[in-house]
């Protein structure tokens, strides 16, 4: 690419809030038809960078740069008025959650049409034609119908398509996509990435902001790895992924669980290397068994079967991965197993004895044997209680001979004893999830239901937590029912998997054989669409 | 290693999270202390008998001897204001307590009592809400007759629906919260979950509201006394004093201004305190 084709030129960009620098001395170029990705974990400054390029860094921010040029135009001294002209017509923006980015009260046709008419002189009729062709170009099924729908009436994937349509409505030469697929299911994510690749091939420059290396490797030509406001490493995507020079980049890549065999630590050189674990005995007794679970909810069209005849068995010491997209019924299964909801039909057995069939009063003493870890650990803690109280309360439920002290529990999950006095609110996401694991351990369970335990965490923290869960399983002989939408995580963690779709288990078997040789077409698609790191050949 | 840094940072930052009180908060605390002393030991603040009549000293303006002046019977307004504190504050505090207690009963019934009770209590609350608060209080007085006790009851009754609704909302929200569910999953019993998790979390924000409510109740109690339905003259009560001084407002402003000022200051002080409590407990979450 020669210099004239540079669409965006950023040199020495720094952003600070109240004297605290969050982005320091950032320089990069984006050419026409090129996708440059900024990768980093939360707090790395990647989103602030994206916002600064739109003049939206926010209140109390100080943005300085030695050069900030868009299509040859200097934006350093742009006024608010200038920025308004830039947004939309020069740079389109796609955010993570289309539900909040689109006006919920207006049909999307009007939402997109407004942008078109604001910046052009098209008549109402021409604008409508333009909106229809835009919606068609982003793969919206039945655009004629879609223009009358509000954002809330569309599914997540279609909503994201509508948002992309509005971002490219004015044919901006540049598109900034900030975590555009983060809230989406893998199959939809794959379609959105294809769409972005299509936009790119039409000559639009894309700046992609993401925490997900797999997403980045699918579409970006070049990558900047950011940490604490600085670029740690940058380069051609394939080369950078294949031969990372910096320690941090290596850690990021190692933390991606996709295609890493079971029991391989994700934190390189981590002290937590588990003893070589033998595969759980296929004849090990079932510790948890679900038989023909059915759960329905009332819906306008009769009763909706959220869980439809689900049966599985979890053997002692193994991990059963339950994978599926949002709405497939995974979490309802978890609630049935935990007896937080009552099944319409079927039952759950613990160690061959009844569990779901028990009366609550009789079940209470055995409840501690099935622990739980949740996605949003913060809300699972009483906001008034310190870590010490939380752990002591749970520990009191363990059999007297088996009780651990708060210090032992914190030690087991790799937290310093000083954390005991804190409220969970004041801990980081990774620390909270460790506390929640410690709480589950405190009651001495045999089974732990892990419902999306790492979905809210950064990839390096996710790697630490997954390693921890793995080590605890080996050390304590725990059995996990591991629920996730992330195939990479599921495959790395599970001995056996069950694939759920529309409330049913469509395929079940050994993790390796299900993922390498999927039998059901849905599993096949799921596996094919799962983003994975693409290395240089 | 960033998580290690975070760990130590979080561990050291967690305990020291109390912001210093602002000037307004200090003033408010000072005024509330003054009110408390005036209630418990009025003699410590004023040596003059609030009901001593001295016809020759009637209608004197504020002076060194009579800080707030004297009224039509020559009684010292300052000592009457001090003496009236206990009455006004007592009405305010007990009315709020009655409102809270009733609200708690109704709220708990609605929150835990099953669908039928919930429905009944909710409709009752809505009917009570349809009356403006003061009107409801007047209604109670019409039935029970005037006097400080009925005024207290009346104000308490009319604030109860508000509290009940808040308590019910809190209980319903907390009962289905993730942390109550996770306590159930661990196998904690219902009584323990109620006393350990649900009640403390539901009632903590209520104490803050009650602080705000006291100021409101003091105003209402004064309003009822002003109308002659609460404390009766010659009792030294702020509302009653306002009512008595109203006749002379053109010639002797101090008869009404000082009791009025006390009402205003009490409301402001409790509001400032209530607000800062709200902010602090919000910062904790």
Summarize the structure.
Chain A has 537 residues and is α/β, with parallel strands linked by helices.
Describe the structure.
The complex is a heterodimer of chains A (537) and B (285). Chain A is of the alpha/beta class and 537 residues long. Chain A folds into two domains: 253 residues, Rossmann fold; 169 residues, 3-Layer(aba) Sandwich (Rossmann fold), CATH 3.40.50. Chain A is built from 20 helices and 21 strands. A six-stranded mixed sheet of chain A has the order 7-8-9-3-10-11, sandwiched between helices. In chain A, helix 5 packs across helix 7. About 1% of the residues of chain A have low confidence. With 285 residues, chain B is mainly alpha-helical. Chain B has one domain: MetI-like (MetI-like fold), CATH 1.10.3720. In chain B, helix 3 packs antiparallel against helix 4, helix 4 packs across helix 6 and helix 9 packs antiparallel against helix 10. In chain B, 38% of the residues are buried. The N terminus of chain B is likely disordered. Classes of the chains: A alpha/beta (537), B mainly alpha (285). Chains A and B meet through helix 13, strand 17 and helix 16 of A and helix 1, helix 7 and helix 8 of B.
Topology:
The complex is a heterodimer of chains A (537) and B (285).
Chain A: E1 6-17, E2 20-31, E3 35-39, H1 46-52, E4 61-64, E5 67-70, E6 73-74, H2 80-86, E7 91-94, H3 98-101, H4 108-119, H5 124-137, H6 143-146, H7 156-167, E8 174-178, H8 186-201, E9 205-210, H9 213-219, E10 222-227, E11 230-236, H10 237-242, H11 247-255, E12 286-299, E13 302-315, E14 319-324, H12 330-337, E15 345-350, E16 353-354, H13 360-367, E17 370-373, H14 387-395, H15 406-412, H16 429-442, E18 447-451, H17 459-476, E19 479-484, H18 487-493, E20 496-501, E21 504-510, H19 511-516, H20 521-529
Parallel strand pairs in A: 3-9, 3-10, 7-8, 8-9, 14-19, 14-20, 17-18, 18-19
Antiparallel strand pairs in A: 1-2, 1-4, 1-5, 5-6, 10-11, 12-13, 12-15, 15-16, 20-21
Helix pairs in contact in A: 4-5, 4-7, 5-7, 11-17, 14-16, 15-16, 16-17
Chain B: H1 2-13, H2 23-40, H3 77-112, H4 114-130, H5 133-144, H6 148-175, H7 178-186, H8 190-226, H9 238-245, H10 254-284
């Amino acid at each position: 690419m020669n210099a004239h084709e540079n669409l965006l030129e950023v040199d020495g960009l720094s952003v600070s809030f109240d004297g605290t620098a969050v982005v320091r001395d950032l320089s990069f170029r984006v050419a026409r038809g090129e996708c440059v990705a900024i990768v980093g974990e939360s707090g790395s400054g990647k989103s602030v960078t994206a916002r600064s390029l739109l003049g939206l860094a926010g209140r109390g921010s100080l943005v300085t740069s030695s050069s900030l040029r868009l299509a040859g135009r200097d934006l350093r001294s742009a006024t608010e008025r200038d920025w308004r002209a830039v947004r939309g017509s020069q740079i389109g923006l796609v955010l993570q959650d289309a539900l909040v980015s689109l006006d919920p009260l207006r049909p999307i046709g009007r939402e997109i049409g407004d942008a078109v008419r604001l910046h052009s002189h098209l008549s109402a009729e021409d604008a409508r034609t333009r909106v229809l062709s835009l919606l068609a170009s982003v793969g919206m099924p039945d655009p004629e119908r879609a223009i009358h729908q509000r954002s809330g009436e569309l599914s997540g994937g279609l909503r994201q398509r509508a948002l992309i349509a509005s971002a490219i409505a004015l044919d901006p030469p540049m598109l900034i996509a900030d975590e555009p697929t983060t809230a989406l299911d893998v199959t939809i994510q794959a379609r959105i990435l294809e769409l972005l690749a299509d936009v790119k091939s039409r000559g639009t420059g894309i700046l992609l902001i993401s925490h997900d290396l797999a997403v980045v490797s699918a579409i970006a030509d070049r990558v900047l790895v950011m940490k604490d406001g600085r670029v740690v490493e940058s380069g051609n995507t394939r080369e950078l992924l294949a031969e990372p020079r910096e320690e941090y980049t290596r850690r990021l890549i190692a933390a991606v669980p996709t295609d890493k065999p079971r029991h391989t630590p994700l934190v390189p050189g981590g002290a937590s290397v588990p003893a070589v674990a033998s595969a759980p005995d296929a004849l090990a007794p079932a510790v948890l068994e679900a038989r023909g679970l059915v759960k329905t909810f009332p819906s306008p069209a009769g009763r909706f079967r959220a869980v439809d005849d689900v049966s599985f068995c979890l053997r002692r010491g193994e991990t059963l991965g339950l994978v599926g997209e949002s709405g497939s019924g995974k979490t309802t299964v978890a609630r049935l197993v935990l007896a937080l909801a009552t099944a319409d039909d079927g039952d759950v057995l613990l160690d061959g004895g009844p569990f779901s069939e028990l009366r609550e009063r009789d079940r209470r003493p055995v409840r501690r044997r099935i622990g739980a870890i949740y996605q949003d650990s913060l809300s699972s803690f009483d906001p008034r209680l310190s870590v010490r109280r939380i752990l002591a309360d749970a520990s009191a439920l363990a059999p007297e001979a088996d009780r651990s002290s708060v210090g032992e529990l914190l030690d087991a999950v790799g937290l310093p004893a000083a954390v005991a006095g804190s409220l969970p609110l004041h801990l980081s996401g990774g620390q909270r999830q460790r506390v929640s694991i410690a709480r589950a351990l405190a009651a001495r369970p045999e089974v732990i239901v892990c419902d999306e335990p790492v979905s809210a965490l950064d990839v390096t923290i996710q790697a630490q937590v997954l390693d921890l869960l793995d080590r605890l399983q080996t050390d304590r002989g725990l059995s996990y029912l591991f629920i996730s939408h992330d195939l990479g995580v599921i495959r790395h963690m599970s001995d056996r998997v069950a694939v759920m779709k529309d409330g049913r288990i469509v395929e079940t078997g050994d993790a390796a054989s299900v993922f390498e040789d999927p039998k059901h077409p849905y599993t096949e698609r799921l596996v094919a669409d799962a983003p994975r790191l693409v290395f240089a050949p | 290693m960033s998580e290690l840094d975070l760990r130590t940072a979080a561990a050291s930052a967690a305990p020291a999270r109390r912001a210093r009180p602002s000037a307004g908060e200090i003033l408010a605390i000072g005024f509330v202390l003054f009110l408390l002393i005036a209630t418990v030991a009025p003699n410590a603040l004023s040596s003059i008998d609030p009901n001593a009549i001295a016809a020759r000293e009637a209608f004197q303006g504020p002076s060194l001897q009579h800080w707030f002046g004297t009224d039509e019977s020559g009684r010292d307004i300052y000592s009457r204001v001090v003496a009236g504190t206990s009455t006004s504050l007592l009405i305010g505090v007990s009315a709020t307590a009655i409102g809270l207690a009733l609200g708690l009963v109704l709220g708990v019934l609605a929150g835990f009592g099953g669908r039928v009770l919930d429905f009944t209590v909710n409709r009752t609350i809505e009917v009570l809400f349809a009356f403006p608060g003061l009107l409801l209080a007047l209604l109670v007085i019409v039935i029970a007759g005037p006097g400080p006790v009925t005024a207290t009851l009346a104000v308490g009754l009319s604030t109860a629906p508000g509290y009940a609704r808040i308590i019910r909302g809190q209980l319903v929200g907390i009962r289905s919260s993730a942390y109550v569910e996770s306590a159930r999953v661990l196998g904690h019993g219902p009584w323990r979950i109620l006393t350990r998790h649900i009640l403390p979390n539901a009632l903590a924000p209520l104490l803050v509201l009650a602080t705000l409510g006291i100021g409101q109740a003091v105003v209402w109690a004064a309003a009822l006394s002003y109308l002659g339905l609460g404390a009766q003259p010659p009792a030294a009560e702020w509302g009653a004093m306002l009512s008595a001084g109203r006749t002379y407002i053109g010639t002797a402003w101090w008869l009404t201004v000082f009791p009025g000022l006390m009402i205003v200051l009490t409301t402001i002080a409790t509001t400032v305190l209530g607000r800062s409590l709200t902010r602090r407990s919000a910062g904790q979450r």
